[in-house]
Amino acid sequence: MFPVIACLLIQGFELRVALRSRPRLSVVPAALAPEPGREPLLGAVTAAAEVAGVTSGMRLGEALATCPELVLVDPDPAGAEREWEGVLRRLEDSGFGVEPVEPGVVVFETRGVERLYGGVEAALTRALASVGPAWDPRAGAGQRRFVALAAASVARPGQAVIVEGEEERSFLEPLPLSLLPLEDERYAELEGLGVRTLGALAALPGGAVAERLGQEGKRAWSLARGGERRRVRGRSPAAELVEALSFPEAVANELTLRRAFGALLDRLLARPERSSRPFRKLALSARLVGGGSWRRTVTLREATGERGRLRSALGPKLTEIPAPVVELRLEAVELAEHTGQQLTLVAPEGEEVGVRLREGLRQVRASAGGGAVGAVVEVAPWSRIPETRALVVPRDV
Amino acid sequence: MSTAGRVVGRLNAPRPALVETAGSGEPRLVNRELVTVVREEWRVVDRWWTEEPVDRRYFEVVLESGRNVCVYRDGERSCWFTQRA
Questions:
Q1: DSSP character string of A276-315
Q2: Considering the domain A1-172, what is its CATH architecture?
Q3: Which CATH superfamily is domain A241-335 in?
Q4: Is A355 on the interface with B (CB under 8 A)?
Q5: Is A13 on the interface with B (CB under 8 A)?
Q6: Separation CA A281–CA A303 (nearest Å)
Q7: Would you say A70 and A54 are in contact if contact means Cβ atoms under 8 Å apart?
Q8: How many H helices and E strands in chain B?
Q9: Which residues partner with A374 through β-bridges?
Q10: Which of A23, A115, A375, A383 has the most CB within a 10 Å radius?
Q11: What is the mean pLDDT of chain A?
């Protein structure tokens, strides 16, 4: 039997983190402000903002015109990452091998702990309790990821909804299309065609959907029918190597920040837990005066533990900090497994080339995310329309 | 609510091109570069039964720099694109 996949969902996670220091804003129309330099689209919104007609993803100008009293909350990416890591660790401490999807959404299998806790439902109750009621977590479970996510989306805070294999179709049928990862215009196109529920989309012929909406529509159609059966791959436990420096007064001087960064780097390099392993990915973050935060993650092209190379890779990021800093943190996000690199006498071939290629692809994935490594798949090599002959699809390394 | 979308791209997607034509409709300038020879010309008419019909007039040309380029005129949108055919 296929294992039960569970999904734990914390709606509006990044907004909740940003509102922790200003809880009174959670009951007024408020929204997560767009990040500087990005498209002016709102992040998550409070329930009061939704009542006022403001939705997540809305253009800033349109939102302010709809609800002039809307309060914009600065995002706290460093805080969100820290809190999310805390949630994941609490789940791991309860025995779940977690695969984070995005901040606020995580999937895991319950098979390993069902006997420990006394069944799927008890395991989900345990997962909800380990996250804590302050986050209003919801849980869902099914035999496929999308079913688990949909179940978690309809659950009430603190509740778990379990969907049995034979009930999947009837459970998904009445749910809205907004559960699908589609562009806004696609929703509009489907609504224009009278398709408003997952059931209505799933009932259409797959070929017609792909013809009309392209690959994105085909994927949505497949999800509306439950999606693929893919096992959960628990993450490797994250390295807990963090060094932080608090300043008695907010610092904006670049020279002082560089010196502080140098001191943090020395402390991080000296940590015995590193066991001489080089760094592959580091994060530099800052708590800013006024309550906001800033964070940049750097993936090194080649894992290294050399001070000079680390300085030149991360040092320039200090100039991007937008406001005076009250605390600077340096975190080793990922360490390489090897402790040194053997130079070659003869040109590599066969398996050695394969190992190096996979290592290179892993670096790309670590740097640019899960969808960054793709494979070319010929779908219609005979087609007279060149762009329909092959697709680039994500590939797991 | 959204799930983490997995990126899927098309290979060899057409790119907009700046093309000036002669009276016959053949390209004379492609991206401000003079066309020396039109090597081949063909038409692709497909999917006329859908709402996204394809009507393209392809030209394989050699530019003044010696580059071989394929361009087409999209009859539906009345604009030019380059693409490896």
A1: TPPEEEEEEEEEETTS-EEEEEEEEEEEE--HHHHHHHHG
A2: 2-Layer Sandwich (3.30)
A3: DNA polymerase, Y-family, little finger domain (3.30.1490.100)
A4: no
A5: no
A6: 8
A7: yes
A8: 0, 8
A9: A394
A10: A383
A11: 85
Rounded Cα distance, A217 and A206, in Å: 9
The letter for the amino acid at A5 is: I
In chain B, residues with a C-beta closer than 8 Å to the C-beta of A370 are 4, 6
Of B4, B9, B84, the CB nearest to A392: B9
A219 contacts in chain B (CB < 8 Å):
6, 8
ipTM confidence? 0.85
Partner-chain contact A181 B4, CB within 8 Å: yes
List CB contacts of A94: < 8 A, sequence separation 6 or more. A113, A126, A127, A130
The Cα-based distances of A187 to A55, A58, A78, A216 in angstroms read 15, 14, 32, 11
**What is the CATH T-level fold of the domain A173-224, as seen in this structure?**
DNA polymerase; domain 1 (1.10.150)
Whether residue B3 and residue A181 make contact (CB cut-off 8 A), yes or no, is: yes
Domain boundaries, chain A: 1-172, 173-224, 241-335, 357-394
A158-205 pLDDT, tens digit per residue, is: 999 999 878 888 899 899 888 888 877 778 888 888 888 899 888 888
**B49 vs A: CB within 8 A:** no
